[in-house]
Write a structure and sequence with these properties.
Blueprint (H helix, E strand, L loop, with lengths): L6 H5 L2 H6 L4 H9 L4 E6 L14 H10 L4 E5 L2 H4 L3 H10 L4 E4 L5 H9 L4 E5 L5 H13 L3 E6 L2 H8 L5 E5 L10 H10 L5 E5 L5 H9 L4 E4 L1 H5 L3 H7 L1
Length: about 240
């Protein structure tokens, strides 16, 4: 996959790039004092059948940024989610919000790409990595100044994630293999994660009711894509829920 970066980004020393990183953790903490912390996802498609190829990215990012989102999530995986590195670069240039690079990250090269193109955090999915890979990629992201959202789905994932002592743990309601969403299962896994971690609920969140249920289970923030792309005005309701 071609990595598209401006000459300024290519030439900027690594330390200069580090100085421009915005903390997703700190943004979530600030948002919690005024409402619910929502990470708005820029999403054009998904394996579940969702399609939004005509999404006006500039308008969407401007709306959710001004509307109180805590951060932005950008899908860079092209085959299943219609994402790209160019999309990450563009979104990173549009907003001062922290940007999460969301992909099936399995190599340092992918993290380097995110770093160069403006990501402030990267997604690491526990179940697609062995212990050595997970440790290496987490520490490598950390060495660049990037935060990592460490995603779990079940009890075994939680045990492995906690060994990293990460700031951010994402709990995905969607099983990556069956694509089924279980809110009940997600709530149970959220309750297993100690409260000292920032817990981000992911997938299938589409209403204030869902937000309230997940908050009761311990969620600190909510990563939402499909529902917001379909109806960006829902953002304010979700923040107030």
């Amino acid at each position: 996959m071609e990595i598209i970066a401006s000459s300024k980004q290519r030439e900027a020393p690594r330390e200069e790039r580090r100085k421009r990183i915005t903390s997703l953790t700190e943004s979530i903490e600030r948002s919690k004092s005024a409402g619910n912390a929502i990470i708005a996802e820029v999403k054009r498609s998904s394996p579940s059948g969702f399609k939004a190829e005509a999404l006006n990215v500039d308008e969407y990012v401007r709306y959710v940024s001004e509307g109180g989102a805590s951060g932005l999530s950008v899908l860079t995986e092209p085959k299943y989610f219609g994402g790209s590195y160019e999309l990450l670069r563009h979104v990173s240039s549009l907003s001062g919000l922290p940007v999460l690079m969301k992909d099936f990250i399995v190599s340092r090269k992918q993290i380097d790409a995110g770093f160069a193109l403006g990501a402030d955090a990267v997604l690491l999915i526990v179940r697609i990595l062995n212990d050595q890979e997970l440790q290496d990629l987490y520490r490598y992201a950390e060495s660049l100044g990037l935060e990592a959202l460490v995603e779990v789905h079940d009890e075994k994932d939680v045990e492995r994630a906690l060994s990293l002592e990460p700031k951010l743990i994402g709990v995905n309601a969607r099983d990556l293999f069956t694509l089924k969403v279980s809110r009940e299962h997600q709530r149970r896994i959220l309750e297993l994660v100690p409260s000292r971690y920032i817990k981000v609920a992911e997938s299938g969140i589409d209403s204030p009711k869902a937000i309230k249920e997940l908050k009761e289970a311990g969620a600190d923030a909510f990563l939402i894509g499909t529902a917001l792309v379909k109806n960006r005005e829902l953002l304010r309701e979700l923040i107030r829920a």
